[in-house]
Every structure is written in structure tokens, then in C-alpha cells.
Give the backbone structure.
Amino acid sequence: GAGVSQTPSNKVTEKGKYVELRCDPISGHTALYWYRQSLGQGPEFLIYFQGTGAADDSGLPNDRFFAVRPEGSVSTLKIQRTERGDSAVYLCASSLAPGQGPDTQYFGPGTRLTVL
Amino acid sequence: AQSVTQLGSHVSVSEGALVLLRCNYSSSVPPYLFWYVQYPNQGLQLLLKYTSAATLVKGINGFEAEFKKSETSFHLTKPSAHMSDAAEYFCAVRDRGSTLGRLYFGRGTQLTVWP
């Protein structure tokens, strides 16, 4: 079956602009995660959705970052007033549900965001 | 918060040699443990995971990892490296008993395989 997909694969924007990054999880997966991977680092957690609601948004760095998942499937990560420090690869992952033990998170290929 | 340490940001081996990638975690309660591999321009792919069964876990592509509670370690090994193993490898942990599911990753180890 289809894996996790993310669009766009690359996004170049100017400092101060608004961007949206999209994630389409594996069908049937209720859990969805966003991570950010800066150059030379491992992925860092941003936010976790269980269904439509954000169950854990403690990883969002500040209020410029926001994410939604209105119908419990596709999610959009929104970044306002982008800064050069936001440049990174944004990864999305989905899983059946963490409450069912150490479920496997399946990752998408990521969106490379470059803020000029 | 969890902390994951991967010793060695770069590891180089010859084709056919043993691969050993190190991972240590910080929590006093053993977490769930994962190894992921990332090929260039691709997403993270799960190699193997430790839950609570056998301490020696076998994964895909001939990799295996051993959980050692006394050493708080979960090192990844492969007896004989192939050129196709060249990639970046990430160790990750998840709090046992948590329903939130977030993973904590190490900084990664870039594996180079020489012919």
C-alpha cells in the first residue's frame, strides 16, 4: 500500500513569508507526528495528533508554528513569519496508535524547507 | 526527558567487515528502542525495535541489536558490511507506558562502506 507522502518535497521561501507543509499519512493510521531534522542532527519531535486533536504539541518551538488535522487524516504544518533558522527537513510519520504498545512510526520522505 | 547518545558521528568499514554502531539511552526505566536507517533523499526506515521480549533483536538487511540493561545500551551490528549499507543510522527511544508516542532520536551515525 501507499506510504506516508509529503508535499512539497522542497520549498524555498523568503524570510518573513508564510508556508504550509502537507502530510498524507498511511490510510487507517490514527496517530500522526511531525518532526524537524536540522542539518547534522537527528529528528526532533514537534507535535503529535491522535485523530483530529493535538495530543502533544510540546515540541513546537514557538507560536509561529501551528499544525492542524481537521478530518483526522491529512495534516498541515503551518509556519508564520519564517526565519532562516527554520530551514530544515520537516518529517511526518504515522502509526496505528501508540496506545497499542511500541507501534512502528512510518516516515515520509520529508519536506526540505529553505528560508532565504 | 529522554536522552539518546550515539557515539561516533561517522563510522567507516570495509566491505565484508563487521559493522558496530553504538547507542546508549539515559532513562532508569528501559524504554522501547528503535533503529532507523535513512538513505539519501528518503524517509526513515525501521530496521528493528526492542519491546520487552528477547534481548537480541533481529531486523531487516541482516542487522541485529542487543539490549543490555546494565549498560543502558542498544548497539546495532551486522557481521558483514555491504556497499548498500552506506547510509545514516538513527537510534531512537520511546517512553514505556506513555500513550503519547513521541520518539527521541540520537544525532545519527553516518556509515561509509569502502570497497
